[in-house]
Amino acid sequence: KAGVTQTPRYLIKTRGQQVTLSCSPISGHRSVSWYQQTPGQGLQFLFEYFSETQRNKGNFPGRFSGRQFSNSRSEMNVSTLELGDSALYLCASSPRTSGSADTQYFGPGTRLTVL
Amino acid sequence: AQSVTQLDSHVSVSEGTPVLLRCNYSSSYSPSLFWYVQHPNKGLQLLLKYTSAATLVKGINGFEAEFKKSETSFHLTKPSAHMSDAAEFFCVVSSLSGSARQLTFGSGTQLTVLP
Predict the structure, then answer these.
(1) What string of DSSP letters covers B48-63?
(2) B109 CB near a chain A CB, below 8 Å?
(3) Predicted local distance difference test score (pLDDT) of residue B54
(4) What is the pLDDT of residues A34-44, one digit of tens each?
(5) What pLDDT was estimated at residue B29?
(6) CB B25 within 8 A of CB B4
(7) Distance CA A35, CA A89 (A)
(8) Upper half-sphere CA count for residue A1 (Cβ side, 13 Å)
């Protein structure tokens, strides 16, 4: 099976712009989660989608949003970019959302740099 | 509420010597525990997971971890380090709160392997 793919891998934007990142989960996986990774804050949970519905949300401002399509692919959007949004954004998929023991499989990430 | 503490931010070992990466957790529920590894500019790869079966869990690349409930620990070990083990390692606790899965990541341990 193909792994989790994320596009683009690298992105450079300027403050005030918006950005959309894409994630394709492993075939058959219906849950997609997004994480932000920075040197200072480590890995922080953004949100989780399952069957096109947001099931869980982390403590991020409303500028961060996401959605999931019927084929389980997911996008996240960040509006009005700030310098502090520079980070590695990781997407992870798992078969379902209700199992604490379910493994999350991570993509390679999108490296976002905000200038 | 749950939390994860990785006791060492950096560990340095010589090639061929044992590796010990320490992780303590707290959780109000029966948690599942994971170790992930991240190589530079890559996503997270699952090393192993504990899901209330055997307390000694074997993972990929010769790593193993022992779940000790009395000590609330889940330390990662490997008998003999290899240069390719150099990476950042994350301990993760996962539990269910109602119907929502909660994942909490440790701050990471950077492993350096010296020749």
Answers:
(1) EEE-SS-SEEE-GGG-
(2) no
(3) 83
(4) 999 998 889 99
(5) 74
(6) yes
(7) 6
(8) 9
